[in-house]
Structure formats: structure tokens, C-alpha cells
Amino acid sequence: MTQDAATALKPDDPAELSREVAQLIVTALNLEMTPDEIALDAPLYGEGLGLDSIDILEVALVVSKRYGFSLRADNEDNVSIFASLRSLCDHIQANRTK
């Protein structure tokens, strides 16, 4: 098996992670859309997906529980972490323990 094929099978594959996180968002917030409808680079907050601060807190809770690290409300990087599905996935990739 080539290294590329081995990498594609890893559970932390970026494409797989983005599908999984999109599914977590849809499920946690009971959104009337499919995970595939969440664009990687569309804003999560306000314009784009249209989440509000309570929605972001819910997402932070499920992400923290699922991936084993804490997303704190007072983190000064939250604006950039929750800017898009891609930025959230990048943060998860860098910090996950599960």
C-alpha cells in the first residue's frame, strides 16, 4: 500500500473530519439541512450558516465531548476557530485527543 493510500484510510483524514463535524453541527442544532449543505469556507456565525452565540456554544460542547479537548467561551481565538467549517476542523485536527 502506498503512503497516500495509507493516509487516505486514517480516521483523521481532513475530508472525513469535515463530514463528521458537519454531521455533528446538523445533529446538535437540529438543522433542517444535510451536512453536505455546509460549505467548508462559508461563515458559521451570522451570515453564511447563520449560527448565533448560543448555537456556537452548543457546537463547542459537542465538539469538546467528541474530540476530547475543551473549547472555552473566553478563548480569544474563538472568532477565528468558528469562522468556518474548515477553520473549526483545522482547530480540531490540531487539538484532538480522541
UniProtKB/TrEMBL annotation:
InterPro entries for this protein: ACP-like_sf, PP-bd_ACP
Classification via Pfam families: PP-binding
Domain Carrier: 15-96
Listed PROSITE patterns: CARRIER
NCBIfam families associated with the record: PRK09184.1
Protein name: Acyl carrier protein
UniProt organism field: Thiorhodococcus minor
